[in-house]
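Researcher: Re-running this chain for the archive, since the previous output was lost when a drive failed. Same request as before.
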Amino acid sequence: MPPRTALITGAASGLGLAIAEAMAEAGYRLLLADLEQSDGAAVARRLDASFIAADLARADDCQRLCDRALEASGRVDILVNNAGLQRVSPIEDFADEDWERLIAVMLTAPFRLTRSLWPAMKASGWGRIINMASIHALVASPHKAAYVAAKHGLLGLTRTAALEGGEHGITVNAICPAYVRTPLVENQIADQARVHGLAEDEVVEKIMLAPAAVKRLIEPAEVAQLALFLCSDAAASISGAALPVDGGWTAR
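Model: Regenerated structure tokens:
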């Protein structure tokens, strides 16, 4: 059997990059997508992968991404919906355009990509969809209305798709990490300091790690190894799951 093909969104940095690196090492054929064209293309060259630039807030870009992925490989066996962004702001100050973009990228785009690739997965009788849902699919934090709403919605999409995909050999799961050492997390420290009235060096200890038993940021490679396992035949009976990688946050 030829190598399975995986499409990973938000693959130019952070968790998407870590998952791409793990899958490349495991021998998967990779199609990488990101808004950042130069960074994404550089990663693709390094990993011997294909790169497609896409703005997932746009419906036409979502469709073009799927069309090009299917044309390039003939099939897409694995979809990793990883692309994301953050906006930290009190509800009364949360701008419409920020709400709409976060929901578009982190909830509507995963639906569109799943819908477009679903028929080919059904036809082949095998598929893996991994939604990077965040611990904020399970719990909420203040000042993150759009992010939390999108991630809660993504978990609902995960569970619904898992019910529909089971008889066709398609599993759909959500990985729910707490704070991972990524640019997305590092870039929000200043915003968290502003809204909570803290110094930036206090944010990690007093906000990000306060609910967790394990008092450190999670490394991207830890999450990537879970994603890799979910793509394996050994994980064929895991579907519709929300899998925390949270240092004990939700144990409380």
